[in-house]
Each structure stands twice: as C-alpha cells, then as structure tokens.
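[Q] Does anyone have a clean structure-token version of this?
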Amino acid sequence: MGKENKYKNKKVLVLGLAKSGYYAARLLHDLHAQVTVNDAQDLTENREAQELEALNIPVISGGHPADLMEQPFDLVVKNPGIPYDNPIVEQALAQELPVITEVEVATSVMAAPMIGLTGTNGKTTTTSMIQAMLSGERKEGHAYAIGNIGVPASQVALELKPTDEAIMELSSFQLMGTPTIKPEIAVITNLYSAHLDYHGSQAAYEDAKMNLIRNQTAGDFVIYNHDQPHLEKLVQKTTQATLLPFSRKEYLPAGVSVKAGVIYFKSEAVAQVEDIFLEGLHNLENFLAAIAVAKLKGVSNRVIQQVLRQFRGVKHRTQYVTEWAGRIFYNDSKATNIEATEHALVGFNQPVILLAGGLDRGNSFHELVPALANKVKALVTFGETAPLMIEAAQEAGIEQMIQTENVETAVPEAYALSEAGDVILLSPAAASWDQYANFEIRGEQFIQAVEQLIETEKQ
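[A] Here you go.
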C-alpha cells in the first residue's frame, strides 16, 4: 500500500452488496476496518455474502432495519446505484457521517498513478484505447483499466504498484461520493443531459462530473472536449490543473486536433485520420482524448498509429460484428441516450438501417431527426419508445418503418429492408430495461440474431 491507511479501526457500513460492495467490504477488511454490510435483498444463499461472513464480516440482508444506524458507524460506503433518498443514506447524512463510494476508498490507498476518465458518452471506449496505447511499449508494470468499465477499483487497489497505471472509468454516480479523488490526468470526453432521474437536475449531474477535477493542482492535467463550449467553461472554473483541450473541428496549437487529415499533438504530427479503423466521428474524438493521454505519458507515435489501425472497439459500443452479403452489422447497444445514437449515425457514410427503441423515460426524439434524415434509409423499432421513434422517423422523411417485438425479431426485418452496401446498426437511443436486464444482454441478443440470420441465409 502506497498511502496512509485512514480506515484502520473505523466502523464502516457498506450499503448494497453487488460487485462493488463485495470488493469494497473485502478491501476495508484488509485495511483493518470494522465492516458491516447491509443489502435490501435476501442474501442468505448468496456466495459473496457467505464469503464475507466467513471473514467475520456481518451481512444484514432482506431489508434495512430501522435501528441499523443506531450503531456508531464512522462512515458509509454506498453502492453507486443507491439513491440519496434511501432511508439509510438519509439517516447517515442527518448524523453528518461521510457517505462515499468504493472508488473513494480504493483511490485513497492505491500506489499507482491514476488517470481518471468520465463523460456522458465514450468513457469505456476511450478507457480501452488509453489502456492499449499505454501497454504498447511498456517496459515495467501494467496499465489496468478499472472502475465503471467492469473491474471495481477496490478489487485491485492493493495490488497496484508505483510502476503500474490505473486507468479508471468513473460514472457520475461514483463521483458523487469521492471527496478526495485526485487523478494526475483527468479526461472528460463530453457532457450532455443524462441521468436526471437520479441527479434531479442537469446542474447536479454536471456538479458530480466535476468532482473528478476539483482537487487537482497545477501539476495535474485535464483533457477535455473543446468542441463543447459549456464543458470548457465548467472545466475552466472548476480546476487549477493544466488544461489540454482536444477538437475534431478546430486546429489547436496548444491541444490535440485535426488539420487536413492529420492528427496533431500541439504542433507535432502524430498520425493520419485514415489510420483509424473504427468508423464514426465520435470515435475520432475518443482517439483524440486517448492520444492526449498517451503523449503526456511519453508513448511513441509508432505505438499510437498501431493502436489506431488495430483497435476494433469495445463490445456493445459501435462494435463491428460482421459483414454478410455486402451488409455490415454494428452493435451499439450501449447507446442508451439520443446523443450516443446521433454520434453513431453521423459516423457512417453508408446508408443505415437503424434498429432502435427501448425504455420510455419521457424523452422526445425530435433531436434525433436531423441525423435520421441524413443517414437512415429505414427504421426497425421496438420497445416502449417504438411509437415515439416512428414519429421522429416520419418527421425525418423516412419512408420505410417497421415496428417489431424486440431486437431478435428486428434483425431479420432489417436485413429484408437492406441491400449490399448498407450498414445494419443497433443503436437504440434508449435504455434496455423495458425488455432486457441490461444493455449487454440486449447487445448479445443482437449478435446472436445476426449469427442466426447468416446461418439461415446459408441454407
């Protein structure tokens, strides 16, 4: 462990088990804290709960006992998904106890330098790009992609060495509970309207995102999207770190940008835009952010160019699936909001058969109309938002529209509407929870449906 252990002998309530709660409890136990876990679900048969109990960590499950907060806890480590109006959280705040998330615990004890990354869209893809670049010519240590990308920071916090790199994807939910987080390099990919049902307002959502950079000093760096003036203003008034903007629209002599098909780090030509395998202007933006980190870390242009050519994307994020009969299939199930789908559409030069629809959060799809009008040849829609998607498609002048049951039935319908040279794109512009447990399952169902389609066509 490279930092002071401020949790020793502290009485800590871990609220919510799940993956992050399990590893937070184990980490705190290793740090010699007195840990109690509470979860609303019955965990009697849960393997992780049983493992914690074997370590003499009490697990209280099946509800939130009214007298739980009568215990003299020193702090609460909250699962990021638990809202702040949860009764236990409200009692903790009323007692003026710190309510933090597991990444706060992990980052406070990690020995490795940290690269923190947040944004509305592109976080996971950019995190993976950075990991690939920092791994290319590494002579010692490892570049770890952790956090919201799927590996809880608390799972590996004590394993990281000063020669390693911790590339941490962070959501707004996680960042709300990080009072001391201080990355040496912070990346903000973009900032749109999102998660207002959780945060209550756009201002609160943005305030949570800015927690990533609040504690930085002049020796640290913030890499941010210069093409969003509102984000630029937020960054400038929040941090004391050195600012490093990126732009795909404007040449920046003091940033990372594009001019005449060449990607520049300040005045240094780094790579050609045509080197990039991944389609999409949003992926160009992601690469610009990743290149900024790589250059700050001394990565060679050769390695950067190699990653641009070889990086095939992250599953469910404008993921290339396959090509069949002249049609190219892409899985962008992670596009759970309008902006993500708009970015995906703008990135294609070919006609698109769009598969879209999902949970109805009360949003209008009017903002998607220009991208639909310019890129989409036909729409296959499903889920709660199907009628709203049809309205937007009609407004965009799309003539071919089909409403179907789900992603699985949408694939053959899309193929029937397509011809050689078309892109068949799953990019739902909505969350999956009306029909699927998460966007990963929705994306897997799309991939399986594509594979089944091809098998059927071969017969």
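[Q] Thanks! Anything notable?
[A] The mean pLDDT is 94.
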